[in-house]
Every structure is written in C-alpha cells, then in structure tokens.
Amino acid sequence: MEKVISCFRRRPEAAFRLICFPWAGGGSIHFSRWGNVLSSSIEVLAVRLPGRESRAREPFLENMQQIVDEVLAVLLPVLRDKPFALFGHSFGALTCFAVANALKKLHHLEPVHVFLSGASAPYSELRRNAQKRSQLSDDDFLRWLTSIGGTPPELLQNPEVLKLFLPALKADLQVMENYRCEKPDRPFLSCSVSCFDGKEDVPHDLPAWRNITSGEFTIRMFDGSHFYLKDPGNEKILLDLITKNLETAEMDYL
Predict the structure, then answer these.
(1) Where is the signal peptide, in residue numbers (predicted)?
(2) Active-site residue among 6, 90, 124, 192?
(3) 90 is a catalytic site residue
(4) Tens of pLDDT, residues 96-122
C-alpha cells in the first residue's frame, strides 16, 4: 500500500479518510501534508501514480482503467473499513470520478462526500471539444504551462528538471484527453458533491457534475487561476470547507 498511497500522519481513530488524487504530472506530497493540517477526525491518504516520486522508475499508466484498477486493488480493503471522502484536482477530478463510479457499480461502496476541483465533467461538451495539450510542440506546451501558473518559473527554465517533469505531465494529459464516458442516465451517487475552481482559470463546465449525484450539489469559486489551491489563503478556506462538510457528514453517521 505504501507504494501507491502516501500518508504523512496515520490516524487510526479518525472518523473519516480523505483520499486525494493528484493533478496531471503531480505527486502525492501536496495533498499528503494536508494530514498535518486537518483535524484528528480526518486521515489523509494521497495517491502516488507510477513515474513520479518513489515510483519514478516505473512506466506510466496508459489509460484511466489502469489507474482505477491499481487504486482500487490497494484501497478497497481500507475503504470498507470506515467512511471516506474523495478529493481530486484537474486530472485528479476525472480520476476521482472514475474511481467513485467503479466503487459504486462494482463494489456498492459510496463516499460520504466528493470534492471536485478545476475540471469539467468528463462527459461535458466543453471537455470533449477542448484542445489536446499533450500533442503540442515542446515550445507551445511550455508556453501553455507558464500561462496556467502553479509551476515555479525557475523549474520551467531548468532543462534537467523539465526532462524529469514533462514526461509525467504529458502522460497524464494523454490519459485525461483519451478518457471518454457517457453522461449518466441517472445519478449513481447520493452523497454531497462540492465543486471548486479558480475565477481566472479557463472556463470549466462545473454544473455538469450535477448529473452524478442526487444529493446536495454546490459550486465555490476562488480568486486565482488553475492552481488557486496552492495559494495559502485559498488553501485554508478550502480545508475549512472540507472539514466542515465532513463534520456534517459525521453527524449523519451518529
């Protein structure tokens, strides 16, 4: 489990587990450290995909089904153990959706809350018509990467760092761009779903996520662009919202 899941702080007595899925090219560290910040009632598990961090020598996964299979093979026993919530940003939001869908349809398991950030629903027309960034030339790709922010400029100007960073990012984007699913005929979840995004990010079809649940659905916009959640002020608000929602869910379990 330690290979696929990073957990900075084990909390065996926690009421909930929060499973976090990284953005394209991202590792587990950003979300793992949330475990040091969130209350003792929440244990944070961050997904670490092949091709990065301690798994740098492993080949990238090639499609969403491979990612879902790997994550569920490791997490399924843990998710049966106690209530859990899911959080994903950008590519991680689509992974989050795919995992939630498989959990419900194959294992009759459902999160108590799903948090989706910085991405259109996978079946929305806006996403289907989006430009395929993974096919851009290196120069155009770097220009796009600079425009969305979130990556320190000194890293983008370092050829050695780019040699390590860009392959993982492009591999994830290719998975994201090739992932296709139909709009659900009816909601497959009944839990609450919260969507977040940066006000200055490119437009995302957040309302389309409404179709996945019959439960409460909310949208919250933050100041900033695609990586609004890296801003300390925004991150505090985001973590407070996550905590509040999980504490509300805990009352429902009592």
Answers:
(1) none
(2) 90
(3) yes
(4) 999 999 999 999 999 999 999 999 999
